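Field log, afternoon session.

UNIT: design team B
ACTIVITY: writing a sequence onto a fixed backbone
BACKBONE:
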């Protein structure tokens, strides 16, 4: 745990006692700050009290006495309106920050690599961290990825923090300037927290705040929003700017051609490696993620040959197109991290004969983004609050069953896949929706899927023994053709 020594003796308020908030409160208590912590949820307060965190009702304190408010990123900062606690703090000019800001203020000598984007940031963060650590660099990986910033180990001058940063965290981290900043993509998401796309884009662009050369911006160009940012940064010429793509050439950038990673940052196109040979990174979206990771770690000083070797050894990310098992010849894939339609679309593009489990708490925009890939879906099994909304969209497009919950959907999908005996059949949990209607988070949803798959009757095989069932798809073959 990080020693937050600059805050020792100062009165600090903490609001929101989930994973990151509780971690921040505990670190501040251990660092002898004068902590007042609160959460609107009684269970969260009880968990914090059990961990020795002082509870004080922040609705009734004198905010003139507070120096900082450490806010959980899940609490509304601006839209649709600031949370009441935020209003109280800002009325007395109390700074509002998050746990990542506490990390930066205490670990000033370390280097920082930041990754953001609507989709793919967890995979890319994990891959960058894997490359850094396996290549012999001292690195800590966390942030929005799952390990709160203050639970990471302290690093000396040669160390690097690899942080997944949500748009909410970027808005609450004032002091950080990333040595390497990665923006993967932007598509509509979290629109309940922003007045519109312009505000959401502005939050994402904060990843590049105060960067000057030789600091590096790695920017995906495979969507219009991100491409516009790439062109703006190139024109401003404040930092080194590297464009990355999974689908097209980028002059002076890193990209893939027919699945082959190409490095054009040194004035000539140099083939690096064939990404089609890595079953842990299937699909064009992962090719862009890999291009971004290659660009980021090369910029951080890792030798390109070491980067290549580390990419080849990358095992994949839990809950993100995670091959769980082969049972009686049917593949089961856990993509619970796909909490919006854009993320689900990326998974649907990677498999040929999909028995698709989708649904949960729907997000704005519904399933529109998956429409180009519905030809790969043999049958959809709908769960959660989104079942009716999703059924209306899918009606006439794919056969479907309203299963209601994950247990029933998995049983229904297994029965139909066994009956139809389609070549390359995959039961894919890729919900395209949030998990909070039936689960605490997407990890709990993915764990439940994995546990149930592992208990299925039949002949089980490790996916690594039969890798062709997962990457060997018509969608991938079409991508290979250009």
């Amino acid at each position: 745990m990080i020693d937050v020594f600059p805050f020792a003796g100062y009165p600090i308020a903490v609001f929101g006692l989930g994973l990151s908030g509780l971690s921040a409160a505990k670190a501040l208590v251990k660092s002898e700050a004068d902590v007042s912590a609160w959460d609107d949820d009684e269970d969260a307060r009880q968990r914090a009290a059990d961990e020795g965190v002082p509870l004080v009702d922040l609705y009734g304190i004198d905010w003139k006495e507070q120096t900082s408010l450490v806010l959980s990123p899940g609490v509304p900062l601006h839209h649709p309106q600031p949370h009441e606690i935020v209003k109280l703090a800002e009325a007395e000019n109390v700074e509002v920050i998050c746990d990542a800001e506490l990390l930066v203020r205490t670990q000033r000598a370390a280097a920082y690599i930041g990754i953001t984007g609507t989709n793919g940031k967890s995979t890319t963060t994990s891959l960058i961290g894997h490359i850094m650590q396996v290549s012999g660099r001292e690195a800590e990986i966390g942030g929005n990825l799952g390990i709160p910033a203050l639970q990471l180990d302290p690093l000396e001058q040669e160390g690097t923090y690899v942080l997944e940063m949500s748009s909410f965290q970027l808005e609450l981290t004032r002091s950080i300037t990333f040595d390497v900043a990665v923006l993967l993509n932007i598509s509509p998401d979290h629109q309940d927290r922003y007045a519109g796309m312009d505000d959401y884009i502005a939050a994402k662009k904060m990843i590049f705040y105060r960067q000057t050369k030789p600091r590096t911006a790695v920017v995906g160009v495979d969507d219009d929003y991100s491409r516009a940012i790439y062109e703006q940064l190139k024109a401003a010429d404040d930092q080194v700017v590297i464009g990355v793509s999974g689908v097209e050439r980028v002059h002076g950038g890193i990209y893939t051609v027919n699945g082959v990673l190409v490095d054009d940052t040194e004035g000539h196109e140099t083939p690096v490696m064939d990404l089609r040979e890595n079953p842990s990174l299937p699909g064009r979206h992962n090719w862009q993620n890999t291009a971004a990771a290659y660009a980021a770690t090369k910029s951080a000083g890792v030798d390109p040959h070491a980067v290549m070797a580390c990419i080849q050894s990358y095992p994949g990310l839990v809950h993100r197109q995670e091959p769980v098992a082969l049972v009686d010849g049917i593949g089961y894939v856990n993509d619970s991290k796909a909490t919006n339609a854009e993320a689900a679309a990326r998974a649907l593009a990677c498999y040929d004969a999909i028995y698709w489990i989708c649904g949960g708490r729907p997000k704005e925009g519904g399933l529109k983004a998956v429409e180009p890939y519905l030809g790969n879906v043999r049958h959809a099994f709908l769960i959660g609050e989104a079942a009716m909304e999703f059924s209306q969209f899918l009606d006439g497009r794919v056969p479907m069953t309203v299963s209601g919950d994950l247990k029933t959907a998995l049983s229904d999908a297994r029965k139909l896949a066994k009956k139809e005996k389609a070549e390359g059949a995959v039961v894919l949990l890729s919900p395209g929706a949030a998990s909070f209607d039936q689960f605490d988070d997407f990890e709990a949803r993915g764990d439940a899927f994995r546990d149930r798959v592992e208990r299925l009757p039949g002949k089980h095989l490790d996916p690594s023994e039969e890798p062709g069932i997962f990457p060997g798809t018509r969608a991938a073959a079409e991508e290979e053709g250009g």
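LOG NOTE: Residues 5-97 form a domain with the Rossmann fold fold (CATH 3.40.50.720).
NEXT ACTIVITY: expression trials, pending approval
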